[in-house]
Amino acid sequence: MRFDLQVIATWIEPGSRVLDLGCRTGSLLAHLTEQKSILGTGIEIDEEAAGQAIAKGLSVIHGDIYEEIEDYPDNAFDYVILSQALMQVLDPETLIREMLRVGRLGVVSFPNFTHYKNRLQMLFTGRAPMSKELPYEWYNTPNIRVIPIIDFRRFCRHLGVPIVKEVAISTHHHDELGKVITFLPNLFATFGIFMLGQGK
Amino acid sequence: MSEYIDQIETGESVGLVEKQFFTFGADAPLVLESGRTLGPVTLAYETCGTLNKDRTNAILVCHALTGDSHVAGFYDPEDPKPGWWDLMVGPGKPIDTDKYFVICSNVVGGCMGSTGPMSENPGTGRPYGASFPVVTIGDMVRAQRRLVDSFGIDTLLAVVGGSVGGMQVLEWSVRYPHRVHAAIPLATTTKHSAQAIAFNEVARQAIMADPKWNRGDYYESGRPEHGLAVARMVGHITYLSDESMRHKFDRRLQDRVELSFDFEADFQVESYLRYQGNKFVDRFDANSFLYLTKAADYFNLENQYGEGSLVAAFSRASCRYLVVSFTSDWLYPTYQSKTMVKAMKKNSLDVSFCEIEAPWGHDAFLLPNTRLSDLLSGFLNKVCLHCRIGGPA
């Protein structure tokens, strides 16, 4: 399992109710179900990925996360996870508010755009940076946003959403190994992972 | 539902099966939703696999509008075609008869051995005809429950079915929430759209406009074959899709190189529909078609159980659901499946949903489809694990 998902998994209390937005083929849900006996549901827009997740025996809804999240009652889940999908989200403010309506806690992970390698690429080549975390050209990327860790913190303040927990990590996109970055995370971390509370 | 499928995908055949009959209600007739009574009632059914010691591995398969209890295997080694869902039901298949005990019954109102309009009315000694009481999906399910009871089965591991069979699945899950662990409604709806009712009405009018229909009393005088064939043709169009018809027929001519300038079947699609219509006449009763389409039109889960609210209706349910729709199904389009999924979610029910990309229209659930097979087997495995079901005794 991806390193960022491993970190997220350590944050989840056993036996809790979890909603995984953009769950792909359900590797995190399967891990949490087996290791932590959670009651999990996923939402995935890709038919093939959703089909594979359901065929694994997971509960998954094939559909768009904005539409699908609306149907859940308030506080239906303990955790709502959005891992490596925020870059593709059209309206992050609405989605995060929805996550914290249906879940007690929200968990968000994303590639840190201001990682030093990206900065160096821009500085020396003058081109839009491409990395293992963001491996697309400007013309074919599904990512419509770039998210530096410090900007995400500002965004949470703007929303009035408390950051309950935060960790920055350095790992390659699909690597199972990685390390936690405590020194200048906005410069040295490849991913940021945040746990958000409901606020007032 | 289209005619039986030729291709067999994976797994083995269940082999020879036998049509059986279960009769109940001779002393206490079934009180129908209309208030009328019916009894005795016979259901034709088939089983495959073995019921385990605890009677916990039973799966009820519900057939679509004009299907029957012959779900898998063969009646006779010489049969050219197996049962209608042989793709899915058998040893090593998604509904694995090495693990599950499969029951499939023909519905009340049908004509494949279950009590229906062509059965003898015990009061008159003649076929019921149009004096047969109007039955509902709920009535069909209540009769199925009696059959399930007769096996001593308290809770079904799963109820599975597509189209009108899917309506029965939904009805089971809401009417008998404590008797169903899991429900798999495929290519179905909680209520017919005006469009679906409209097509059924055209089909019924075709039958009733046939002079041989004779107000349903035709069993001695000759059947309304032409009307029934036209009804089937209308239905058949709704089971396909624009794309599948274009792919299969386009505007190709049938056995000719130029237009005939008369009303012969010039086009392949005309010839195909005529063939399907005529073939249907050989195996189906026109009155049954009237009653079954009416039952499908009357089905309205939210009115029946939720005073107009689907969320309230599903608040009665407690099983796990796997809902599946198909992209090109214009009879029961995906939005109808999404509506039921939404109501299930609002009740915090455990639901999975997948819209499968398939160009073949409503009939897709009857055709070979790896995605559907994987979904069914994975979902059923999970249900089994959750219920701690072992194999047969």
Automatic annotation (TrEMBL), chain A:
InterPro entries to which the protein is assigned, alphabetical: Methionine_synth_MetW (IPR010743), SAM-dependent_MTases_sf (IPR029063)
Top-rank lineage group of the source organism: Bacteria
Entries under Pfam families matching the protein: MetW
Protein name stated in the entry: Methionine biosynthesis protein MetW
Organism field: Pseudodesulfovibrio methanolicus
From TrEMBL, chain B:
Chief location bin: cytoplasm
Residues at which substrate binds: R232, D363
GO molecular function: homoserine O-acetyltransferase activity
Chain segments annotated as coiled-coil in the UniProt record: none
Catalytic activity from the UniProt record: L-homoserine + acetyl-CoA = O-acetyl-L-homoserine + CoA
Active-site positions on this chain: S163, D329, H362
Record Gene3D superfamilies: 1.10.1740.110, alpha/beta hydrolase (3.40.50.1820)
Enzyme Commission code: 2.3.1.31
Keywords annotated in UniProt: Acyltransferase, Amino-acid biosynthesis, Cytoplasm, Methionine biosynthesis, Transferase
Subcellular location: Cytoplasm
Pathway(s) this gene product operates in, as recorded in its UniProt entry: Amino-acid biosynthesis; L-methionine biosynthesis via de novo pathway; O-acetyl-L-homoserine from L-homoserine: step 1/1
AB hydrolase-1 domain residues: 57-366
InterPro entries for this protein: AB_hydrolase_1, AB_hydrolase_fold, HAT_MetX-like
Family: Belongs to the AB hydrolase superfamily. MetX family.
Role noted for this protein: Transfers an acetyl group from acetyl-CoA to L-homoserine, forming acetyl-L-homoserine.
Alphabetized PANTHER family for the sequence: HOMOSERINE O-ACETYLTRANSFERASE
Self-association state and partner proteins as the record states: Homodimer.
Protein name from the UniProt record: Homoserine O-acetyltransferase
Native source species: Pseudodesulfovibrio methanolicus
